[in-house]
Amino acid sequence: MTRILVSNDDGIWSPGIRALAEALEELGEVLVVAPDVEQSAMSHAITIRRPLRYRKTKIGGLNAYRVDGTPADCVALGVANHGPPDLVVSGINIGSNIGFNVTHSGTVAAAMEGTLYKIPSIAVSLRLKRDLPMDFGPAADAAAALSKVVLRDGLPEGTLLNVNVPPGQPKGYRVTRLSVHQYQGSVLRRVDPEGEEYYWMTGDPVADERDGYDWAAIEQEYVSITPLKLDLTDLQRLPDVEKSMRELVAREAAPARG
Predict the structure, then answer these.
(1) Is residue 46 reached through a cis peptide bond, with omega within 30 degrees of 0 on the bond before it?
(2) Which of the following CATH numbers is that of domain 3-180+209-232: 3.40.1210.10, 3.90.650.10, 3.40.50.1580, 3.40.50.1380?
(3) 58 - beta bridge partners?
């Protein structure tokens, strides 16, 4: 029987993970392993300085466990305790994960962890709009449809899918690349009532609106599907870097003069 591991970074009690898991039950046996509290923006952090707890949890009729760790921890413990599944799906994240923001995302990191185990993996996020209700139904349907395709066709080794769903009913699907969407960060310095300094990380979104990119797709009300690779090597620039570093490399390789 097909086995699917579901995780997220919004925490085990998020309505998004329940909607996702219930939608995937039609494809096979679903196991939910998720953080016991929200772990947004944890990226691919893993816990190495303390023990982790893995606790059976009741979420409706779902087979679920909660972990006092990061999204990547959850996938690692799920695999360790139950064996490698046929598919890892992370989400449904409350809020989109597009552009360079994927480097911060715990949702994407859970899918990355699955990919490290050579398990086909998908990260799914729902964009929100203030004037629209938070409806996970279309995103859950999209996740199930994409999961069915990935279970059938697989994914190249070292590649995962980052999926972003617009609010409301999508017009369709588009395969995209990462935009330069990011938060142009700033650090606010403030003083608390006791006179102690504290800092608040904030930022304003900056977006790339060109067609073919993830931001444009969800702005135009399409589901964005972006393949991501674990290998971050810029192969196109390797010769340029090698050329500029040739003198340094040659000097380091030269025998020491006594």
Answers:
(1) no
(2) 3.40.1210.10
(3) 63
The pairing of beta strand 121-126 with beta strand 159-165: parallel
- Euclidean distance between CA atoms 108 and 113, whole angstroms: 9
Residue 3: burial class (beta carbons within 10 Å; 0-12, 13-18, 19+): middle
Nearest to 168 by CA among 208, 217, 209, 218: 218
Instruction: Please state the pTM of the whole predicted model.
Output: 0.90
Mean pLDDT of 72-99: 97
How far apart (Å, rounded) are the C-alpha atoms in residues 98 and 19? 21
Task: Kindly tell me if the per-residue pLDDT of 69 is higher than 70.
Answer: yes
pLDDT digits (tens, 9 = 90+) for 111-120: 999 999 999 9
Residues counted in the chain: 258
Q: Please provide the DSSP assignment of 140-166 as one string.
A: HHHHHHHHHHHHHH---TTEEEEEEE-
Extract the tokens encoding 155: 């994914």
Residue 4, pLDDT above cutoff 60: yes
Q: What pLDDT band is residue 248 in, cutting at 50, 70 and 90?
A: confident
Collect all residues with Cβ–Cβ distance below 8 Å to 213 and sequence separation of at least 6. 99, 176, 177, 178, 179
Q: How many CA atoms lie within 13 A of 150 on its CB side?
A: 29
Q: How many CB atoms lie within 10 A of CB 116?
A: 17
